[in-house]
Amino acid sequence: MRLPRIHSLQARMVVFFVILLVSAQAVLVLLVNASGERIAKSRIAQELMVGERVFRRLIDQSNRRLGDAARILAADFGFRSAIATRDYGTILSVLGNHGDRIEANVVMLADLDRVLLADTLHPDRHSAVFPFPALIDAAQRERQATAIVLIDGKPYQVVVVPVLAPVPIAWVAMGFAIDDRVALDLQAVAGLQVSFLSQDKAGRWSLHASTLPAALRAELLTASGFAAGPDGPKFLELGGEAYEMLTPVLSDGRDGRVVAVLQRSLREGLEPFNRLRAILLALALISIGSSVVGSVLIARGISRPVNRLAAISRNIRDGDYSQRADVEGQDEIGDLAASFNHMLDGISTREAEILRLAYEDTLTALPNRAMFHDRLRQAVLTARRTGEPVSVMMLDLDRFKVVNDSLGHAAGDQVLREVASRLRGLLRDSDTVARLGGDEFAILLPTGTPERVTMVAQRILRVLEAPIVLEGQPVDIGGSLGVASFPLHDDDSDMLLRHADVAMYEAKRGNTGFAIYDPRYEEGRQTHLSLLGELRRAVENDELSLYYQPKIDLKTGAIRRVEALVRWIHPTRGFVPPIEFIPFAEQTGYIKRVTAWVVERAVQQAGIWHRDGLDIAISVNISTRDLMSNELVEWVTDLLARHAVPAEQLCLEITESGFMEDPARALETLGRLHGLGLRLSVDDFGTGYSSLVYLKKLPVQELKIDRSFVMNMVDDEDDATIVRSTIELGHNMGLEVVAEGVEDLAALEFLRRLDCDQVQGYYISKPLPTAQFEAWLEARRQAERTEATTPA
Amino acid sequence: MRAAGWSLPVLALLTAPALAGKLSVTVTDSAGAPIPEAVVYAMPLSGRMPSTAPRAAVIDQINKEFVPFVVPVQIGAAVTFPNKDNIRHHVYSFSPAKIFDLKLYSGVPAKPVIMEKAGPVALGCNIHDWMVGYVYVVESPWFTKTAKSGTASLDLTDGEYDIRTWHPWQHADVPATRVKVNGAEVRVSFRIDLNPPPKVTAH
Known about the structure:
Strand order of the largest sheet of chain A: 19-20-22-23-24-25-26-27
Structural class of chain A: alpha+beta
Helix content of chain B: under 10%
Number of strands of chain B: 17
Distance between the termini of chain B: 34 Å
Shape of chain A: rod-shaped
Radius of gyration of chain A: 69 Å
Strand content of chain A: 15-25%
Oligomer: heterodimer
Number of strands of chain A: 28
Strand content of chain B: over 45%
Structural class of chain B: mainly beta
Largest sheet of chain A: 8 strands, mixed, barrel
Helix content of chain A: 40-55%
Largest sheet of chain B: 5 strands, mixed
Shape of chain B: globular
Largest interface: A-B, 12 and 18 residues
């Protein structure tokens, strides 16, 4: 058993009860001790006094008995006859003879004149005066008289009666020696130690009879101070034992006095009390012992379940929910245990829910990225042992972003759920399909032989070809798959996933449906990795810069507008194309920081040019997210004011999809920006699904035709039609039309014929850093002036 | 016997030439109450007394008592103790004047007891401790005892006498009163203290 700590509940309870009980018992024992001893002592004193009364009564009775006997004897006719003879010898012999009959030790005869006629003790002494005249006086009155007297220094009970014939003719005295037998008889009745002592006239004490053992008699005699002192019990120590004693004086006569010593042993007197005390002490010890046992049991009954609960709660802390508290009994401990179990259930249920949320994608109920990583890691670990191949697939939906942008999130969610359900339907239970985020899915094939992988990939692609019906409209989604296998491509689970990702991008780029990883894909893709961190650093370290691509006014040939384009010159990788970080930044939300940087830098540049007298407006692309921001308008206002830039010098280019998500809000923001006097432009016009109704409502001044139409329009009739229609549409709505992607003179001339307002493209100039752009601009103006002065 | 008792004064009267006088005695206690049963007798100073035979006396035992209680007799008198009860008695005396005992008997004992010495003879019964009686033996022929009235009288010849009285319960000897009888009546009174013994119940 573990030793209980002194702080433990159990120890405290035990200590409390034991102290309580010990105190109570101690008080009781002390009380009994104090009052018990007092009571016992007073009882002893009482006994002693009762004993004395009994003793005196016994002496009286003995006297009377002896007197009666003596009277009967004295009335004996023979006795009287003998006395009447007046013959001394006859008288002496009859005294001896009749004295023997009642066991008298001494018999005396006196005549009516109180002259001693005979004395059995001193046969030679007669004609003396009778020694106890007072007894004769008393006998005259009472017919008999008795007393304890000293004869030759020894105590006798003496009885005096007349000899009647029939009137008194003489007095006879009979003496009975007081010896040990007498003392023993008295002790038997009175219950006291009885001793008879005498003190002669010289003050010497002698002891004559006693119930005490011989050794104590001598000691009693030497301790004879008892004669003095007050009446009532006195204390005496004899033979190492304590006594209470009384010393009644039995006679005080001519020759001295006789004293009885009555003793009661304190030890004997206290014995019942001591026995009681011993019983009480034993009871106290027993009750203390049993209370210790009892309180230990009760305390353990409390502390053991509590300790168990504590142990279980430690298990819970360590994540072990397997143990439950034993619910024993109806008491508070039982209630506590039951509550404890409820708490345990609650915790484990909530933890299961948290785990589920942590490892499950709530939208599709598929495993999430974290769980997929886990399973992949497990599969790889298992595969390392078994040597079985493991394959990972990354799936990205081709047209999900379009659906999401044009039909809203709800539609997007429906697409994701439908895709999840289709994928799960065609995979084995041992395979894992997870949604990693966005429209990105991953599939783990733990037994992925190359044949099966190819087969599964084709089946997935086929299943995704079937259109998904959204709001009654069939929508083609399609997807691109990348595959990487263990141990063929890598033996690390994270690397496998990245390889599959790379392969997926490759498939998407090549529009091949699916691709199996090839190390060559890595070239040029490497940069995509860990972009976010680096992009963040780039913004902070000013690794980004703005390039400016000029737009030519086809009517005047003047350069009054430029589009600011962000460029990232990585310290080690060199130039990073925007397509590699802008979409990524849009996905992660970091685009806001990038946009802020771009706008601020552009406004700053516009301010510089404005001060330098250059009339050049700068266009900046802003993202959908920027348009949804509440602070955009205030922030832009503040920026323009800070750099003293007129509002019309800044143009914001927005993609169609930018305002399709929440048109009302986008319209509101755009309206306020327009109110500021800013120029607004719709970028990439023609690629989205934007409605002309919205276009009509938008407070924009400009349309930008997407480069994909412009680049092929010279050869492609359809594209040419689109470009022409767009220009006409724009003009009809009072908007300026800008064409980008102009790469040769034919395109420029074509657009001029279509009455396009402005053009932009490599044919005019590629995007240039500030200094080069300024140089280019200066050179061009120089040329114009030359042209003007020397016409061609 | 009784006839003889009666004849004696007559004889004296007849024979004595001398004149005679009457002695009247009254015995009372210190309170003046009369004391009966007190023996009264006269001792002549001359010492001369008529040599007449002492009169015999009878003490009955009736109902476990000696009757009479006190009987004065002259030395030499024979006293008989007729038992009138239907039980036996054992009459005794340990008095120095006469020690005797009449063992258990009924009726009249064969022999009377002769009182040879002057003095009180206390009578007892060995069976009945409470029975007490007295014979008072005097030397003088002139004796009597007081009646209930405490008075007694004696006819004495002229001359000088010591008049004495005795009662069983008396404390001490009563001093004699000396008188001179000369034809006339002489009155003597005694005042004595009595110490009556405690009454003992008869069985």
